Amino acid sequence: MAIWKIYDPSGQPAPQQVTLPPAPPWRQPGRGRDSVLARTFIPDPLLVDAVNSALYLRRPLLLTGKPGTGKSALVHSVARQLALGPVIEWAVNSRSTLQEGLYQYDALARLQYIQQVNARIRTAEQEDEAAELGMFLALGPLGTALASRHAPRALLVDEIDKSDVDLPNDLLNVLDTGHFVIPELKRAAGRHPVVSIAARDGELVEVRGGEITFTEYPFVVMTSNGERDFPAPFLRRCVQCQIPEPGERELQDIVAAHFAEMPLNAELLEVIADFVKTRASVPLATDQLLNAIYLLVTPGAALPVEEHKRLRKTLFQGLGG
């Protein structure tokens, strides 16, 4: 029986909690995963041209391609190469709104706070209302990218094609105008012209007069799996790039980047060829190949070749579509 199995129902239960083997580098929690994505991403020349065009023109980059083709990894690679700091990420869904991207205001929590304070001190006006306002406001991912003192920042707007129909144009309108208003602070600007609120990455941002004005555009990457068409005015304001699926040679380069300590021997090349053959009939993502390679080369797994071939039927399951 192969010793690679952590879970073996035919054996005796573990006497104490097991220690799992190390996770694949691209599955490490926290910023370590982002570093791997940035270091191992291999863009083709057309994609490099699109990135540079977007940087020069201060336009968002709209990346379209099948899942698992590296759309999200690109922004981490650019941020690492240009020292733009940690990537700010906004995972979009059908309920996402522009306000969510710019800022969040917890009105209910503030009301409860005021009631608690008034129960303790019976004063008509709180002395530190500005600080109290800032406690219940926070910049969202888009607001953080626009307001950061360390501009330009890199912003990933992931799966923009899942958004409400109005969100893409609303987002670009903010970029075009160069500022946005926080109404809760605008109404109090006469009493409190400057209020500090927290950004997504923990930075404190001073908001003056209830408005945030930015002088440098972030590097914005919007990804799409092609699940819907966008209107022409939106497409006109973006730099567009379609990411193709990597061919067999490109897959070999990707595997070599992730497993630099392992030579591309006949065994690994056979796995890559099997992946390409399977992908011709069912949609697959590149990380499915990396998963299979990892289980073949990880020290201590001792997974026999024939069992690995059987395991690929599980790992190379089609993604539908």
Shape: globular
The total count of helices amounts to 14
Class of secondary structure makeup? alpha/beta
Question: What radius of gyration results from the CA coordinates?
Answer: 24 Å
C-alpha termini separation: 37 Å
Helix content: 40-55%
* Major beta sheet summary: 5 strands, parallel
| Poorly predicted tracts of residues | 122-127
SSE topology string:
HHEHEHEHHEHEHEHEEEEHEHHHH
Order of strands in the sheet with most strands:
2-5-10-1-11
Question: What is the tally of beta strands?
Answer: 11
How much beta, percentage-wise? 5-15%
The chain-level mean pLDDT equals: 87
SSE topology:
Layout: H1 31-40, H2 45-57, E1 61-64, H3 71-82, E2 88-91, H4 98-102, E3 103-105, H5 107-120, H6 129-135, E4 137-139, H7 141-147, E5 154-158, H8 167-177, E6 179-181, H9 183-186, E7 194-198, E8 204-208, E9 211-213, E10 219-224, H10 232-236, E11 239-242, H11 248-258, H12 266-279, H13 286-297, H14 305-315
Parallel strand pairs: 1-10, 1-11, 2-5, 5-10
Antiparallel strand pairs: 3-4, 6-9, 7-8
Helix pairs in contact: 1-3, 12-13, 13-14
